[in-house]
Design a protein that fits this description.
With 255 residues, the protein is an alpha/beta fold. Helix content is 40%, strand content 17%. Helix 5 (103-123) links the parallel strand 4 and strand 5. The longest helix is centred in the middle third of the chain and has 21 residues, at 103-123. The chain binds manganese (II) ion. The site of manganese (II) ion has 6 residues, from loops.
Length: 255
């Protein structure tokens, strides 16, 4: 048991800080509760705002994103996105969403996602948080087996066969409270290699009891991970912290 001062940090690998009524309040919370948070954004034009919010923060990591569901309205900002790519190591939310049956729109999503992946691959060290609703197979195929960088599949909900392929490709996973409550979600959690699991809230979209999740609430995922890994909660927390710190190349703050 570690003394409280050396307690592990928390990790929220996918949170929409800019979509809370008071983002500044969430940033203060992130600092106080020591939650390493990947602050995803959904379109390039809002990146600067989140980048500003993260200034002076030790735990908030601003991410540059282009959400697949916003391609129709914001896909034209791709050039803006690519021009901002040098400003952060963190990319997301990007990916594919096949809730739309529109073939043209799916093709546009795919073209943009592929282009973003190609540009990220040239950097080699990007950390990319990826949406794959009903599109897991195509997302995994687009990333491929040898992607130079870290791809984190956020809230994976695809088939176990696709999941196994993603695992074999070296992809990472961020898991949330909603996944712990369904048998499908638990089956997914049980497949994941411990060393590639991160936690996420997907706040403010994900709610518990009607209340939007905030980064410190990510701890709610830990009891289920502890159970699956057959360790106590403190150890599950330590594993996730260590995973994140290894990912960003900082081994000093794991405990
Ligand atoms: Mn999201």
């Amino acid at each position: 048991m570690q003394p409280p001062s050396q307690e592990s940090v928390l990790v929220d690998a996918h949170c929409h800080i800019d979509l809370y009524p008071s983002p500044e309040e969430i940033v203060a919370l992130v600092e106080k509760a020591r939650v390493h948070t990947i602050a995803v954004t959904n379109a390039p034009f809002v990146f600067r705002h989140t980048q500003e919010l993260s200034k002076g923060s030790q735990y908030l990591h601003p991410a540059l994103g282009m959400h697949p569901e916003l391609i129709k309205s914001h896909g034209s900002q791709l050039d803006q996105m690519l021009s901002l790519l040098n400003e952060t190591r963190f990319i997301g939310e990007v990916g594919l969403d096949y809730v739309t049956p529109d073939r043209t729109l799916r093709q546009q999503q795919s073209a943009i996602f592929t282009r973003i992946l190609e540009e990220c691959a040239r950097h080699g060290d990007k950390v990319i948080t990826v949406h794959s609703r009903r599109a897991a197979r195509d997302v995994i195929a687009a990333v491929g087996p040898n992607f130079p960088g870290t791809v984190i599949l956020h809230w994976f909900s695809g088939a176990l066969s696709d999941l196994r392929k993603a695992i074999s490709f070296g992809l990472w996973f961020s898991v949330n409270y909603a996944m712990t409550g369904s048998s499908n979600g638990q089956a997914i959690l049980a497949e994941l290699p411990m060393a590639r699991v991160l936690t996420e809230t997907d706040g403010p979209f994900l709610k518990i009891g009607g209340v939007p999740q905030r980064p410190p609430d990510v701890a709610a995922v830990l009891p289920t991970l502890a159970q699956i890994w057959n360790v106590d909660e403190a150890e599950a927390k330590r594993v996730v912290a260590e995973n994140f710190l290894r990912l960003i190349g900082d081994a000093t703050d794991a405990r």
